[in-house]
Amino acid sequence: MVSEEKVVAKVLTVDATKCTECGLCEMACSMRNVGEFNPARSRIQVISFEPDFFRLPLVCLQCYQPACAEVCPQGAITRDKDTGIVRVSAQKCDGCRMCEPACPLGVIVFSPVEEKAVKCELCDGKPQCVEFCTAGALEYKEAEAAAYDRQRTAAERLREVYLSAESTFSRGQGG
C-alpha cells in the first residue's frame, strides 16, 4: 500500500512596506500566464493609494472555502487536493462572471481576451512574481509560517503604538 503524504499548503504573502511598485511582479506574471509583458493581463495587481503613495500588491489568498468556487454554476473553480491551489478550469468556465463579485479582494476577474475567469494559480507552485520581486515584498511560504509572520507583525505594530502612547502619557504627566 502506498502511503499518502499530505502536502502542506503554501501561500503567497505580501509585505506592503517593502513594495516599490516597480511592476516586475506584474510583468513576470503576465509573461508566465499569457506570454506577453502586459500588466493589465497579470494575475497580480499593484494598487497605489494617493497622496501617501502606499502600494499594495493584491493576490489571491487561495481561500479555505473560496466564495468564487461556491457561486460558480459550472463547477469550474476547484481546489487542488495536493497543493491547496484554487484553480479555474478553462474548459468548464463559461464566462458568466458570477465569481467576480463573490471574491472579497476582487482578484478573480473576467478576461475579455480569453473570455473566461482568471486568477492567480501560484504558477503551479513556483510563483514567478516572487522570483522577480527584487524588493522582497512577495514570499511564498508554508501557511503556518505566514500566519506566524502576520501575528509577529501585528504584535510589533501594537508594541509601537503602546510605547508611543506610554511616551506621550509620560510627557503629559511630567509637565
Description:
The chain has a domain at 62-103: Alpha-Beta Plaits (2-Layer Sandwich). Mean pLDDT is 87; it is low at 1-7. A hairpin with a 4-residue loop joins strand 2 (45-49) and strand 3. It has 5 helices and 8 strands; from the N terminus they run E-H-E-E-H-E-E-H-E-E-H-E-H. A two-stranded antiparallel sheet has the order 1-8. It is α+β, with helices and mostly antiparallel strands.
- Sheet with the most strands? 2 strands, antiparallel
Reading the helices and strands in chain order gives EHEEHEEHEEHEH
Strand share of the residues? 15-25%
Our Rg estimate from Cα atoms comes to 20 Å
Distance between the termini: 76 Å
Helicity, as a percent range: 25-40%
Alpha-beta classification: alpha+beta
Give the number of helices. 5
Count the beta strands.
Answer: 8
Strand order of the largest sheet: 1-8
* Overall shape: globular
Mean pLDDT equals 87
What top-tier CATH class of the domain at 62-103 fits best? Alpha Beta
Predict the CATH topology of the domain at 62-103: Alpha-Beta Plaits
Low-confidence stretches: 1-7
Reported CATH architecture of the domain at 62-103? 2-Layer Sandwich
